[in-house]
Design goal:
This protein has helices at residues 16-25, 44-50, 74-90, 109-115, 119-122, 136-140, 148-157, 166-176, 191-202, 221-224, 272-286, 341-349, and strands spanning 3-10, 32-37, 66-69, 98-102, 125-135, 180-184, 210-213, 259-266, 288-295, 302-309, 312-320, 329-336. It is of the alpha/beta class. The strands form two sheets. The protein has a seven-stranded parallel β-sheet, with helices on both faces. Strand 9 and strand 10 form a beta hairpin. Helix 3 (74-90) packs parallel to helix 4. 38% of the residues are buried.
Amino acid sequence: MKIPATVITGFLGAGKTTLIRHMLENAGGKRIALVINEFGDLGVDREMVKGCGIEACEGENGEDNVIELANGCICCTVADEFLPTMEALLERDNPPDHIVIETSGLALPKPLVKAFNWPEIKTRVTVDGVIAVIDTHAVDMGRFADDEATVQKMREADDNLDHDNPLEEVFEDQLVCADMVLLNKSDLVDPKRLEEIHADLAARVRDHVKFIKTDHGQVDPAILLGMDAQAEDDLDGRHSHHDDHDDHDDDHDHHHDEFESFSVTLGPIADPDALEAKLLDMVNAHDILRIKGFLDIPGKPMRHVVQGVGPRFQRYFDRPWASDEPRRSQLVIIGKHGIDRTSIEKSLVA
């Protein structure tokens, strides 16, 4: 019997990690192996899961339950890292009941689903389903899903605006590949506007794709796991903007070229409110897509998490600093290619 694997995709800051934490907290004894992929220099998402205090993350083999694939998107490193990672999971003495793969916020899901057809794993694993997590508040603000009427007005005003939007392409590829769409952060959107967003997204997906409205990723894992979609056998129905590039190695990471990320290490942050105000100014000045990381606040025993999606920020204490880890502040900045890294670093360090 094949082990089911669920692919969780979604744009930057949509709430994938929060969803996975909820899933692990309510695993009901099911052994879930978690594979995390990130776009960035700092293993922030992995740390958020490892430090969450969830029983499923801890124990004798807790470290082995979280496998981080570095060096960019899964679809860009799949030939180098994905296969041995899957084989390592399958060859464990106590193999998992279910595999959950959290993709980078800039990852294209179809190449990953396609990889499940490789002979080494095809007879042993099946893609139970692809879940797209949507930040409905960001969509409402027009941040990650372009409003067609607005784009048309911009094109009419700017003759040079004929190129495709890479953000929109990634967003749509994630939607079209999905078997289920979670309209996350729906509590932040006016109910009427939420229905409009739902209708707009429903018009973009394949037939029979289910939509669920969620707040903070609160969904019963029984709904998410067990779809039996066998997505690897349904590739033709999951069209992608990048289908023409799938078999060209020189174009393999073409969508990566539009974005870049870097991390900044800071000292103790005595005034996190002031730092947030500075970060907001930076977002407005440099069109930063995503900020995430941790802060060391003097006098506080717990680590302080910072997450920003566009102009919206969230901060909270997640866990005590470990006795054997250095207390430090680190932030990952993700933006369009050509972002002024030097200026941002100087502003932060000042």
